[in-house]
Amino acid sequence: MAEQGRGDLPRPPRRIPSWASENDETRLPSGPGTTIEPRRRTVDGGAGSEPPLPPRFRPRFVLPLVVFVLVLGAAAGWLVRADSLSLDPGDVLDSAGPVVVRVLATTCEGTGQASGVMLPGGTVLTATSAIRFPVSVAVLTQDGKVRRVTVRGVTADGVAVLTMAGRADKPTAVVAPKLPDPKADRALVGYDLTGRQVVSQVGTAEQPIPLTGLVDAGALGAPMVDRKGRLIGLLTGETVASGKIIDRDRLPLSPDAEGVTAAPTKTCQSRGPQSPVEPDLAVANTPLAGEVNTALAAYLNTLNLHDFDAMQLTYSQRLRALSSAKIDESKHGTSYAFGAVIEKVSAAGAAANAEMTFTVLFSPTSAQAKGQTCAQLRIQYHLVREQQKLRIDGAGTLKNEAGCETD
Fold first, then answer.
1. What is the pTM of this model?
2. Cα distance between residue 258 and residue 252, in whole Å
3. Closest CA relative to residue 131, chosen from 265, 245, 261, 321
4. What average pLDDT does the segment 168-185 reach?
5. Under DSSP, is residue 281 helix (H, G, I), strand (E, B) or coil?
6. What gap in Å lies between CA 18 and CA 37, rounded to an integer?
7. To pair with 345 at 20 to 30 A between CA atoms, which of 207, 265, 299, 306?
8. In a 3-state reduction of DSSP, which class is residue 386?
9. Where does the chain hold its CATH 2.40.10.120 domain(s)?
């Protein structure tokens, strides 16, 4: 018996799924099964059969999903709105920079330095305080061109309306169709007193940033723009601290705008802005070029201040003997020089030669003005060393282009 039992191995049990019943039509394979197949779901149970039950609804899983979608949507909407209210200073400067000009003038009060914005038809808007009692006015565009302008009139809000001479070929500002959202960022695009164009973010209408500390007096007359660089206002006032923004709705945007009256005038000995100037160097900044720059900057500053006694100190002893403060006053009594560039510098033993280009404003009734208000000059200077300083010993005009509008 034991041997017979060892020879006949027991057959493995049939693996029958627990869900199987005797009435199943599907026959199970005979022999050892190693895979359990899932029960086939009946698609159509036929007459009298009950429909399959729907999946069980579990609100505890759906509710967090709904909350997540709502939060995500709200966050996305907030981000889109925040982006539409913010601005990029670089983009603003690219779009608005070409239409912003530097306004320079000789006036009875020496206040003629500001910013301005160009409109179609050769119109320029700036701050009245910069051109009060004007004698000669010009604008310097972003591309370095100088244009003579006349004062068409002023408004009670302190906005001056200028008309630019010459071709109307400069880019002009785009006026925003309406004021931006009170929560939207705004910016001023103008020039500082050194002549550098800058963009300054000034906050929102609801939360403005004080302008003092952000910009200097050169920004008076600067346009306020939205995130697309479109005109929405203009900075006016006597000073930056007391300045105010005139909204686009109150600006004289058309030639026939109401509220523009003639600017007051009077007879005076005009002078230009009183801020210091320094020539740019278009040559290598060598020690000699630095000395030349210092000497010619001192000459230009005394010229613009109309301090003709101090101007005599920038001359050599030989030149002082041939001139006087009275002679200089007769020649330069209404002059204002700007945009100076030292083009050439060369040594001549202990002396030096230099060529400098610049633009000068003056009264059209001044000596040798010939009815013009500005000229573009190229002057060659000879400088000698006295008391360890370079001083002007002589000068000659190489180029004199009368009329700044001839660009």
1. 0.74
2. 7
3. 265
4. 93
5. strand
6. 11
7. 306
8. strand
9. 89-250
